[in-house]
Amino acid sequence: MPKDGKISNSVIRRLPRYYRFLGELQEEGITKISSGELSQRMKLTASQIRQDLNCFGGFGQQGYGYNVSELRAEIGGIIGTDKRLNAILVGAGNLGKAVALHLNFENCGCKLIGVFDSNPELSNTPIGNGKILSISFLESFCKANKPQMAILCIPKESAKELCDKLVELGIRSFWNFSHFDLNPEYGDEDIVVENVHLGDSLLTLAYKTNNR
Ligand code: NAI
Fold first, then answer.
1. Could you give the CA distance from residue 151 to residue 91 in angstroms, rounded to a whole number?
2. 154 C-alpha to center of ligand 1: Å?
3. Which of 127, 189, 200, 207 is the most buried (most CB within 10 A)?
4. Using one digit for the tens of pLDDT, what is the confidence trace for 60-107?
5. How far apart are CA 199 and CA 179, in angstroms?
6. β-pair partners for 149
7. Ligand 1 geometric centre to CA of 121 (Å)
8. Of all protein residues, whose CA lies closest to atom 39 belonging to ligand 1?
9. Which of 89, 102, 103, 118 gets mutated to test ligand 1 (max ligand atoms within 8 A of its CB)?
10. Are the C-beta atoms of 167 and 185 separated by less than 8 Å?
11. Letter string b/e over residues 139-169, b meaning 16 or more CB atoms within 10 A of that residue's CB
């Protein structure tokens, strides 16, 4: 950890990528890797990698490189993939279903424990190993199960009211796919938000394509 205990946002953003790359190396049966080779694969400089890992005390040995499984386990520990964050998902439409069914929550240190929707036609319909619950059960469910994280797959218009409710119910961590901008609303330092806009990524690609 750095002396002030703060890791920069850009380092935090690179950690999942290290974790993923090291997982792929493990799958390929690679047990150790030189910093040069890792940097080539990841398209980062060796010094960038060293600097990043030094934030957490540094790993690897001069002349040996990195032990892949040890480094992956260390990075997993830093991210907290060994913990289990209980998550709920609200909005079981097209996007919500895709997120609920196709993401490996466990790999990310999370567990999806409930899926909610306000459409009565969806209540009790199967999703994965469970059933979609009516939003009317949200409060009692949260009180009983104390989820730490909410995944929002609802339209923008419903997001503010729902978030206020979820904050009231003790949720402090939001993975927000709704196009409602949560950050300015919840200035509370204790509340963490990851806004996901697939459209932004596509716009970035469009720009790059048009300006090659
Ligand atoms: P959808 O209409 O298929 O699903 C939305 C679901 O949310 C519906 O089942 C509806 O009953 C439910 N819902 C609405 N208000 C609710 C509330 N207050 N509590 C509980 N459930 C509620 O829409 P789709 O395609 O799944 O998209 C959902 C939202 O995500 C849209 O607003 C869309 O703009 C946004 N979106 C965001 C993307 C991103 O990259 N961030 C990508 C695609 C869509």
1. 9
2. 3
3. 127
4. 676 778 899 999 999 999 999 999 999 999 999 999 999 999 999 999
5. 10
6. 87, 173
7. 15
8. 197
9. 118
10. no
11. eebbeeeebebbbbbbeeebbeebbebbbeb
